Amino acid sequence: MSDKFETPSMGYAGFCALLNGFFPGSPSYTEKDYPKLDGKVVIVTGASAGLGYEVTKSLLGSTNAKVYMFTRNKQKTIDAIKRLETEVAKEFNKTNLNVDYISIDFADLTTIKPAAEEFLSKSDRLDIIIHNAGVMLPPEGSVTKQGFELQLGTNNFGPHLFQKFLDPLIIKTSIKNKPGVSRIVWVSSFGHYMSSLGGIFYPDPNFTTTKVGKGNIYGQSKAINILQAKGWNTIHPDGNNVTCVSLCPGFLRTELQRYGSSFELFMSDLLFKKARYGAYTQLYAALSPEIYTGAHVQAFGKLTTSRPDLTEPSYISKAWKFLDEHVESYL
Q1: CA distance linking residue 87 with residue 61, whole number of Å
Q2: Among positive and negative, which fits the CA dihedral 147, 152, 153, 154?
Q3: Contact between residue 227 and residue 155 where contact means Cβ atoms under 8 Å apart
Q4: What domains does the chain contain, in order, with CATH numbers?
Q5: How far apart are CA 292 and CA 330, in angstroms?
Q6: Strands ordered across the beta sheet of 295-298
Q7: If 297 and its partner were Cys, which of 195, 237, 247, 266 is the partner (CB 3.0–4.6 Å)?
């Protein structure tokens, strides 16, 4: 692989994905279609705002699943649960929400193990996890507690470590479920098209000396999410009853834009859709019977493909080795 940062051409698939982002059509799979999920347990990370909040609301309102919200800010989450109680009652005519929350900070790897252990002490099953938490386009030079580029650490290393602690339980639970029920959902983005060849710029993954656009740095983290989805079943042959899927939720107005310029915020308000629509993409990936292992989903519930190099086994295995090496000391 070259020491020079190279972004492959988007190609026809990328052009179609871009077009779909601006003109996604209506959601294909909504609350009326969701299974009831009686007795099932679902984790949603980053659940106190934006997409994660809308996903959690739809799950609590239209299914009987137990939902665990994994979030960074305790008070914000308490306030979010109060809003959920009000909005679910109003929109779904349902009270007594089956929800709990656990504190975690994906930008600090030392918080991952305690959070996972707290969940494992509370639940004897895990049916679905939606890796929704993330950060986009932070100020230049932003890093995690461990000194990693903030998006690489928050969007990739943190979730990768978290999933490792949960793997035994989701595999154990999947044996009891019908095929297609147990799922790991990795929320990626159209931004993955802006990553380097193979997804990761190995000569300088934290971009400490390499100068590229801020979209390229974000794109790397979203390409890695796809590589995580593509590789999990290969790394875990005993988890063949767990379906892994990646997705681009759509071009949406969420808190992810909080670091944008005034012009970028103006354009997102003008062109992007409400977060609720992105929740439909995520829940299509998490619940639809059309989903298969290795699938990639786009707005608002359509099967598509990711950039071709991100499906190559050599790039997938190299990415997993890279991720494993960076989280190993926190297991």
Answers
A1: 9
A2: positive
A3: no
A4: 11-330 (3.40.50.720)
A5: 31
A6: 99-103, 66-71, 41-45, 128-131, 183-187, 243-247, 295-298, 302-304
A7: 247
- Structure tokens belonging to residue 317: 């295995």
Residues in the chain: 331
Name the E strands within the chain. 41-45, 66-71, 99-103, 128-131, 183-187, 243-247, 252-253, 273-274, 295-298, 302-304
The reported pTM is 0.94
Q: Which amino acid, 105?
A: D
Q: Who contacts 217 (Cβ-Cβ below 8 Å, separation ≥6)?
A: 149, 151, 152, 207
Which residues participate in catalysis according to the annotation?
A: 188, 218, 222
Is-contact 135 154, C-beta < 8 A? Answer: yes
Q: Per residue in 151-167, pLDDT tens? A: 999 999 999 999 999 99
**Residue corresponding to tokens 């994660």:** 52
Name which of 259, 306, 1 is nearest 142 in CA terms: 259
Closest CA to 330 of 67, 104, 78: 104
76, 48 contact by CB (below 8 A): yes
What contacts 53, CB < 8 A, 6 or more positions away? 47, 80, 83, 84, 275
